[in-house]
Automatic annotation (TrEMBL):
It comes from the Archaea. Pfam families: MMR_HSR1, MMR_HSR1_Xtn, TGS. This is Small GTP-binding protein. It comes from Methanoculleus bourgensis (strain ATCC 43281 / DSM 3045 / OCM 15 / MS2) (Methanogenium bourgense). Gene3D superfamilies: 3.10.20.30, P-loop containing nucleotide triphosphate hydrolases (3.40.50.300).
Length: 371
């Protein structure tokens, strides 16, 4: 075991054995900050130790990018082929078939979604084991993470979630509203908006681990020590994710229900139970991908002409008329006069609206600009 791993283990043990209360919160904050800093340095070092092999630099395309994350041989390659309707990814009944990142294109409900099949993660990937460093770099740039396990190894979920967390990837969480501005003097000055549990002593001890002794700190809303440490380190990415369980056709109904219940309890929402091999519930999986990306469809209607109901504009929720203008061409926003809307967001058909009007999925939009 390396000295870095030993340090991490010692700090984790001390944290585990220290009861949390107001008297120990400052000490716990310092331990957590130290642990986060050591982990971050180890991950950064692992990432820098390789330039990334062939196939690891993938140009993003389509409306969004989804990455399939899982252990080797859980069926990621078969799933990619099933989602994209092609045979892009070689499949075989042994581990480590995929040795580079393989991109595929999935079209669903008018959206063009890039799906990446990456080499299987293994325990220790965040620290650079296996092809961890290259794989983690691809995952960090994703718009959505699909965590894939199979029915025989659902316990892998915990390992995968830990690897993603250690690599600075925060799933299904919004970035906390924290500003840390270093100053030349004056110590740590804390300003808060809303109900904030952290006190200035905890914050001072956390910042001291990063050699910050003078700073203006602004916190809005509820945040934890972990949130504050993430803000201090500053390189975290916040990505939506969900779990899918593959090969469900190989177990009986009772086993399937038990796995679903167990993962729902641990993850907070039910996994999507699929079979990439047989195609079972693949359409449901495509819907979950679309919904998790928070897409909405807007159908464009030229002035005086019919709406294009074949090719919607795909845009992320929430979206205004201005967001659509910016997606089409910057001139649309600069020369905007008014727009007309048909659909759920309109009070009546052909309602005249301004540029700040909030749109809904399925709306038909006609934009009128100055000449």
């Amino acid at each position: 075991m390396s000295s870095v791993e030993e340090q991490i283990r010692e700090l984790e043990d001390e944290l585990k054995n220290t009861p949390y209360n107001k008297a120990t919160s400052k000490h716990i904050g310092r331990l957590k900050a130290k642990l986060a800093k050591i982990r971050d340095e180890a991950v950064t070092q692992a990432m820098a130790s390789s330039g990334g092999g062939e196939g690891y630099s993938v140009k993003k395309s389509g409306d969004a990018t989804v990455v399939l994350v899982g252990f080797p041989s859980v069926g990621k390659s078969t799933l990619l082929n099933r989602l994209t309707g092609t045979n892009l990814s070689e499949t075989a009944a042994y581990a480590f078939t995929t040795l580079s990142v393989i991109p595929g294109a999935m079209e669903h409900r008018g959206a063009k979604i890039q799906v990446l099949d990456i080499p299987g993660l293994i325990a220790g990937a965040a620290m650079g084991k296996g092809r961890g460093k290259e794989v983690i770099a691809v995952v960090r740039s994703a718009d959505l993470i699909l965590i894939l396990v199979d029915v025989f190894n659902e316990q892998h979920t915990d390992v995968l979630l830990r690897e993603l967390h250690d690599a600075g990837i925060r799933i299904n969480r919004h970035k906390p509203d924290i500003t840390i501005k270093k100053t030349g003097s004056g110590g740590i000055r804390l300003n808060t908006v809303g109900n904030v549990d952290l006190d200035v002593e905890e914050i001072r001890s956390i910042l001291a681990e990063n050699k910050i002794v003078n700073a203006d700190v602004l916190i809005r809303g509820e945040v934890t020590q972990d949130d504050f440490i993430d803000a201090m380190i500053g390189n975290r990415v916040y990505v939506p994710a969900f779990i899918a369980v593959n090969k469900v056709d190989l177990v009986d109904e009772k086993t399937r229900a038990e796995i679903e219940k167990k993962l729902t309890r641990r993850f907070g929402e039910p996994p999507v139970m699929v079979s990439a091999h047989s195609g079972y519930r693949i359409e449901d999986l495509k819907d979950t991908i679309f919904d998790s990306l928070e897409f909405m469809r807007v159908y464009l209607k030229p002035v005086g002409g019919p709406a294009d109901m074949e090719e919607p504009l795909i845009i992320r929720i929430p979206a205004t008329v201005e967001d659509v203008c910016n997606r089409l061409h910057r001139d649309f926003a600069d020369k905007f006069r008014y727009a007309r809307v048909w659909g759920e967001s309109a009070k009546h058909d052909a309602q005249r609206v301004g540029i700040a009007h909030q749109l809904a999925d399925g709306d038909i939009l006609s934009i009128v600009t100055r000449r």
